[in-house]
């Protein structure tokens, strides 16, 4: 979640995509650690299955979001620039 927020705050589509991919990588690490937790019997098979399925779904959603954002122009912004307050004359 922090990687996604950081990428969004950078403001450009390219950096947002970069940080979405970092979030996807982190999700892969979590899935790997789930295997370790299961092998060490820290979690049950049922817990492993539910968590692994949720992580796999998140990975697919992140990939779909990256594909969606990739359809925009290279230099496009992710968020609108802040509005300037009207100058008092």
Give the radius of gyration.
18 Å
Distance between the termini: 43 Å
Number of domain modules: 1
Helix residue percentage: 55-70%
What is the strand tally? Answer: 0
Q: Residue ranges: pLDDT <50 for 5 or more in a row?
A: none
SS strand fraction:
under 5%
What class, by secondary structure content? mainly alpha
If you average the pLDDT, what whole number results? 89
**CATH arch. level architecture:** Up-down Bundle
CATH superfamily: 23S rRNA-intervening sequence
CATH topology: de novo design (two linked rop proteins)
Overall form:
elongated
Level-1 CATH class name = Mainly Alpha
The helix count comes to 3
Order of helices and strands: HHH
Q: What tags apply to this protein structure?
A:
69% helix; de novo design (two linked rop proteins); 3 helices
What does this entry look like structurally?
- This protein is an all-alpha fold.
- It has one domain (2-69): de novo design (two linked rop proteins) (Up-down Bundle).
- Helices cover 69% and strands 0% of the residues.
- Helix 1 (2-10) runs antiparallel to helix 2 and helix 2 (13-39) packs antiparallel against helix 3.
Write the layout of secondary structure elements.
Blueprint: H1 2-10, H2 13-39, H3 45-69
Helix pairs in contact: 1-2, 2-3
Give a quick precis of the structure.
This protein is mostly helical.
